[in-house]
Amino acid sequence: MFGKIASEALGLSDIGKVIKPQDFDKVDSDDYVMHEDGEKIFFIIKSKKDEYCFTNLALIHLDGDSAVSKKRMLKRYNYATNEISSVFLETAGTVDMDVEIKFTIGSAHFSIDVDKKQIESVKDLYKALIKISEIVDSNETLFDYAKQSVGIAKESLGRIGSQGSSPVEQFNAITESAYDWLRNKHKELKVKDFGFVFEKYINQ
């Protein structure tokens, strides 16, 4: 504990700061946001070596080797293909200088220290990530139901048959209809843009 206090007092810890919206264009991660495709930044945490940029489409992580190195590894986690789970917020104790937000996105695990003076902003991020996690989990369940229901429908239609059409024609008609139905369900339930969640919970 005393080592941690000494580290923070000497400025050696890597506690992040929440960047204000008016300064979003001053951080490095802004260069990698796909503004041309309507991507928008909603939340940035910047520490000495890392940047965590939350947009409506993805988490962009600029991973630094160390506080004194300019070398960075750029990692992008699209929400549509990387499910957010295990979201936790650890508040500060009496002697702590930071709060900690933890979550998993895809197979990557994050634990980000943030200045405890900015706890209210971190709470907003926590709520947004929790909501995205809930929406994705619910929609995955509904899409599984959709796939099961179309399978049942195909089996039922196959048993009933259709007068005046060959088995090949029946198969093609059923398959094409099932494909179109599932494609529409996929478009409906596989959300890519979560700007509406961030707009609701992030206090800009």
UniProtKB/TrEMBL annotation:
<feature type="domain" description="YvbH-like oligomerisation">
    <location>
        <begin position="144"/>
        <end position="203"/>
    </location>
</feature>
<dbReference type="InterPro" id="IPR021722">
    <property type="entry name" value="YvbH_oligomer_dom"/>
</dbReference>
<dbReference type="InterPro" id="IPR037063">
    <property type="entry name" value="PHb_sf"/>
</dbReference>
<dbReference type="Pfam" id="PF11724">
    <property type="entry name" value="YvbH_ext"/>
</dbReference>
<protein>
    <recommendedName>
        <fullName>PH domain-containing protein</fullName>
    </recommendedName>
</protein>
<dbReference type="Pfam" id="PF08000">
    <property type="entry name" value="bPH_1"/>
</dbReference>
<dbReference type="InterPro" id="IPR012544">
    <property type="entry name" value="PHb"/>
</dbReference>
<feature type="domain" description="Bacterial Pleckstrin homology">
    <location>
        <begin position="10"/>
        <end position="132"/>
    </location>
</feature>
